[in-house]
Write a structure and sequence with these properties.
With about 400 residues, this protein is of the alpha+beta class. The protein has two domains: about 5-50 and about 270-405, no CATH class; about 85-260, no CATH class. The chain is built from 13 helices and twelve strands. Helix 2 runs antiparallel to helix 9. The protein is elongated, with a radius of gyration of 33 Å.
Length: about 400
C-alpha cells in the first residue's frame, strides 16, 4: 500500500474521534511547551549572568582584604585591613601583564543636594576605574591623578543617584554634601543596570580613593584592589604573580594562610554558569517527564483504538492489506498525534516564555535549537510509544479479527 494512501486512512481515523485525539495530544502539547519555556528560562538566566559578569569589565581580577587569625579566631572576609596603597602601586609597577589598577574603598552615606537627599554607596576609586569597568560617562569628565593626589572634593554620580538628587536637572558643576563634606560633581555615568546580585549599579557615587579614605570613611587601608589583565590569556598568570607579590610584601611564610582573597572574572562566570546550568537541567528534566507522560497517554489511546478497530483491521487484511501496512497506519496515527501536539506545544512554549518576561520580568531566551530538539523529541515519543500498539495491530489474526464483536 502506498504511503500517502496509508496517511489518508490514518488521518481519517483521527478525524473520526476529534475530541479523543485532542485530549491525547494535550500531554504532548504541555510537555513540549514546558520544555521550551523552562529551557528558555534557564538560558535567559544564563545570559543575564553573563551580562552581569561582562559589566565588571574585561579580564578583571579582584583582590580583597582577607581574614587574619587572632588566637585561633578568624576575622572573616574583610575583617582585617590588609591591603595598602603601596600594594596597589606595586601591582601596577612590578607585575607584568597588568593593564590598569584601581584601588578601592567603600562607604555608605546620606547625600544632600539642596532640598533633596539620598542614601547611597560611596566608592573610592582610582582614575582608571571607568576604563577597567568599561563604564562610559553620559556627561562631564572623570577626575584626574592630580585630584587623587590632592584628595580633592570631587565626585562622579551614578545615573540613579543623579536622578534622585537632581531630578530633571544637569548635575555637572553643582555641589553635593557627603557627610557634610562639599563635593563638586564632575560628571554623570551612563546607566549600567543591575549587578549579578540584583543591586542597582547606578545607585552610587565615585570619588578619588584618597578622598574617601581621608574625608569620608576615615580609614588608612584599602577594601580591595581591582586589576585588569592585558588579555584573557594572561589572566591566570597575572593572578598568580599578584599572589606571589602580596605574600612577599606581607611577609607570609610558606604554609601560612593568605591575608587576602583573590577572584577573577572567569572563576565568577564559571561558578554562576554552573548554578544556572544546574537549574536549567532540573527544569528541563521536569518538563521532559511531562512529555514522557504524554507519550504514555498516546500508547494508552492507541491500544484502545486497536481494540475498538479489531474488526476493521480484520476486513483490511482480508482484502489484501499486509501486516506492515497495518503497522505503518497505526505508527502514522501516533506520529501525527505527537507531531501536531509538538507544533502546538512550540507555540505554547514560546508564548509562555514571552508571558513570563512580560508579567514577571524574568529573562527568557528561546533558542532555535531548543525548538527543533523539542519537536524532534515529540515525534520520537510518538514512534516509541506508538510502536507497540501498531505492532500488536499488525499481528492480529485476520480470521479472529473478523469474528471480533
Amino acid at each position: 500500500m502506498r504511503i500517502f494512501a496509508t496517511l489518508r486512512i490514518a488521518l481519517r481515523a483521527l478525524r473520526r474521534n476529534k475530541l479523543r485525539s485532542v485530549l491525547t495530544m494535550l500531554g504532548i502539547i504541555i510537555g513540549v511547551g514546558a520544555v521550551i519555556a523552562m529551557v528558555a528560562l534557564g538560558r535567559g538566566a544564563k545570559a543575564q549572568v553573563e551580562a552581569s559578569i561582562a559589566a565588571l569589565g574585561q579580564n578583571v581580577i579582584m583582590v580583597f582584604s582577607g581574614s587574619i587569625n587572632r588566637g585561633g579566631v578568624f576575622t572573616g572576609f574583610g575583617g582585617a585591613g590588609t591591603l595598602t596603597i603601596e600594594d596597589a602601586n606595586a601591582i601596577q609597577n612590578e607585575v607584568s601583564g597588568v593593564a590598569v589598577v584601581s584601588p578601592e574603598v567603600r562607604s555608605g552615606a546620606q547625600i544632600m543636594a539642596g532640598e533633596n537627599n539620598w542614601s547611597t554607596s560611596v566608592m573610592g576609586e582610582g582614575v582608571d576605574y571607568l576604563t577597567l569597568r568599561q563604564w562610559e560617562l553620559e556627561a562631564g569628565a572623570m577626575f584626574t591623578e592630580v585630584d587623587v593626589r590632592a584628595a580633592a572634593k570631587v565626585c562622579i554620580l551614578g545615573w540613579t543617584t543623579a536622578d534622585k538628587l537632581f531630578p530633571g536637572e544637569d548635575p555637572v558643576g553643582k555641589t553635593i554634601r557627603i557627610k557634610n563634606v562639599p563635593m563638586k560633581v564632575l560628571g554623570v555615568l551612563k546607566r549600567k543596570g543591575a549587578s549579578m546580585m540584583g543591586q542597582d549599579q547606578d545607585d552610587t557615587i565615585v570619588v578619588p580613593y584618597t578622598t574617601c579614605m581621608k574625608r569620608i570613611a576615615g580609614v588608612t587601608m584599602l577594601r580591595s584592589i581591582n586589576v585588569s589583565a592585558a588579555s584573557a590569556g594572561q589572566l591566570n598568570d597575572v593572578q598568580d604573580s599578584i599572589a606571589d607579590l602580596l605574600r612577599q610584601r606581607h611577609r607570609i611564610q610558606a604554609g601560612r594562610d593568605d591575608d587576602f582573597i583573590m577572584r577573577n572574572q572567569q572563576e565568577i562566570a564559571e561558578a554562576r554558569n554552573a548554578a544556572t546550568e544546574t537549574m536549567t537541567a532540573l527544569l528541563a528534566g521536569v518538563a521532559v517527564i511531562s512529555l514522557i507522560v504524554g507519550g504514555i497517554g498516546i500508547m494508552n489511546i492507541m491500544l484502545v483504538s486497536v481494540t475498538e478497530r479489531t474488526r476493521e483491521i480484520g476486513i483490511r487484511m482480508a482484502v489484501g492489506a499486509r501486516g506492515r501496512d497495518i503497522l505503518l497506519q497505526f505508527l502514522i496515527e501516533a506520529v501525527t498525534l505527537s507531531s501536531i501536539g509538538g507544533l502546538l506545544g512550540i507555540g505554547l512554549g514560546v508564548g509562555g516564555a514571552k508571558l513570563l518576561t512580560s508579567i514577571k520580568q524574568w529573562a527568557t531566551l528561546v533558542s532555535p535549537e531548543s525548538v527543533v530538539i523539542a519537536f524532534v523529541f515529540s515525534a520520537a515519543v510518538g514512534i516509541f510509544f506508538g510502536f507497540y500498539p501498531a505492532r500488536k495491530a499488525s499481528r492480529l489474526d485476520p480470521i479472529e479479527a473478523l469474528r471480533y464483536e
